Amino acid sequence: MNSELIVIGQIVAPHGVRGDVRIFPHTDFPERFTQTKQLILEDGSCLRIESVKFHKKFVLLKLHGINTMNDAENLRGKFVHVKRADAVRLPEGHYYHFDIIGLKVYSETGEYLGKITDILSTGSNDVYVIEQDAKKPLLIPALKEVVLDINVDAGHIKVKLQEELE
């Protein structure tokens, strides 16, 4: 997939007989659908949004040119994206998971520890899963006391290891 696109949802079903689609949002900001004029599919084609409604945990969209249940059914399972430049701006010191996954991790002494391969959401704080060469994955809590520096542009983070984390 194009790294300039970010997934914001998946079309899970038609909604009604007039071509509306039901989207399961993959974003912490579902209100973005009301501010977005178009969505991009994996093949690069664009879908213009005509109207937006919210129903329970879903976003209901009327898309230009999608006028029947069959038209909407043809979109079932497709992921919808926006351009990375259109991502909701986060406050300083906050990052999207897709920006963190793949970063190289170093200790405060400069020792290479591995790469972040996953982020676990525990409720109180995220936990970074770091794959290490020939070792069990290392779990690092995403806390200011542990994560000393995140440099997305340079592709790495610096962490303070604690005895119980090693």
From TrEMBL:
The keyword Chaperone applies. It holds the Pfam family RimM. GO terms for biological process: rRNA processing. Coiled coil: none annotated. SUPFAM superfamilies: PRC-barrel domain, Translation proteins. GO terms for molecular function: ribosome binding. Residues 98-165 form the Ribosome maturation factor RimM PRC barrel domain. Residues 7-85 form the RimM N-terminal domain. Keywords: Chaperone, Cytoplasm, Ribosome biogenesis, rRNA processing. PANTHER family: RIBOSOME MATURATION FACTOR RIMM (PTHR33692). This is Ribosome maturation factor RimM. It comes from bioreactor metagenome. The gene is rimM_3.
